[in-house]
Amino acid sequence: MIDPILRDAETKMAKSVDHFGTELSTIRTGRANPALIDKVMVPYYGTPTPLNQLAQISAPEPRLLVVQVYDKSQIGAIEKALRTSEQGLNPASDGQVIQADLMGRAITAGASSDTLAPRSGVTPRWTG
Question: Mean pLDDT, the chain, as a whole number?
Fold first, then answer.
């Protein structure tokens, strides 16, 4: 009688832990991580679309994110979405790729992770 309840609780707890790990990967630290901007929503022909579906994101250097856009006509929209995201990036584009340097945000990165980490822990996402 208790076994189904325990199994259900274990699966819900495992989902919560997985979601929390995903949330923690989006918090800014001193090193560039493509997961920082994976879920930034970009208006793609009127439809909000995650950035990772519109471009390839890489971190070739510890403080640099490079976004290679599949549809070059969307570079402006992606730049705007990165500027207005909660990560506070200032991207630069050369018409082919978008680069976001994390160096200028070193002072506020600590404050950002201090405020985002508790908020991530307080708002677990329950899936059932």
Answer: 80
pLDDT digits (tens, 9 = 90+) for 80-106: 999 998 877 889 999 889 999 877 554
The residue with tokens 């978008």 is 98
CATH level 2 (architecture), domain 2-122: 2-Layer Sandwich (3.30)
Phi-psi region of 99 (alpha: psi -120 to 50; beta: other; left: phi over 0): beta
Contact call for residues 69 and 40 (beta carbons, < 8 A): no
Contact 66, 34 (CB under 8 A): no
Cα(95)–Cα(54) distance, rounded to whole angstroms? Answer: 15
pLDDT band for position 25 (50/70/90)?
A: low
Dist. CA 71–CA 108, nearest whole Å: 32
Here the tokens at position 61 are: 């250097």
